[in-house]
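Incident log, structure service

09:12 report received: a user says their structure output differs between two submissions of the same chain.
09:20 pulled the input from the user's history:
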Amino acid sequence: MTEVTVLAYGAGNTASVQFALERLGATVRLTDDPCAVSEAERLVLPGVGAAAWAMGRLDALGLSDPIRAFPRPLIGLCLGQQLLFETSAEGDAAMLGLIPGQVTPLTPGPGLTVPHMGWSALSDLANDPLTEGVEDGAYVYFVHGFACPDGPATLARARHGAPFPAMVRQGNRWGCQFHPERSSTTGARILSNFLAIDA
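09:34 re-ran on a clean worker, output below:
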């Protein structure tokens, strides 16, 4: 049975993530202990809310450096994906710096509101263990007002007016801008793929 550690640092919907992973047969450990993070088989970084506040929590708990040094599969969900990047325009926050670039606000437009809340289709999926079995055009559930920069790390895109990275990867670090734990069978497939990646 796969063991997965979920960071419980006060800035994520950890219960929903825990239940989604347990439904897939994983053994889930919730922690804010830096030593437990360093020893984890694989790591999930959830997040909702403001980037600066979330990074402040990670720093205060001594979690930022163990996350940066983590050598096995790691996935950031929603704000957790944004935290993988260098900086955020939200509060001018310095973040984990694992993927180059700055997170910037979504731009409202005709018929579009910010934050982006609801189901949007994935497109431009790259071939990757995390996207295996996920079809182009599959819908996933988003809640966010900021978006990561497009670049070599992008695995898939979605649109809210302009396209933005919906999934990213840099080495052993992956991210989903959406909430896979709330994204029905597509989200379950993505989480199952993460659990199957060799640790």
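09:41 both user submissions now match this output. Likely a transient worker issue. Closing.
09:42 reviewer note: The mean pLDDT is 96. The CA atoms of residues 20 and 181 lie 5 Å apart.
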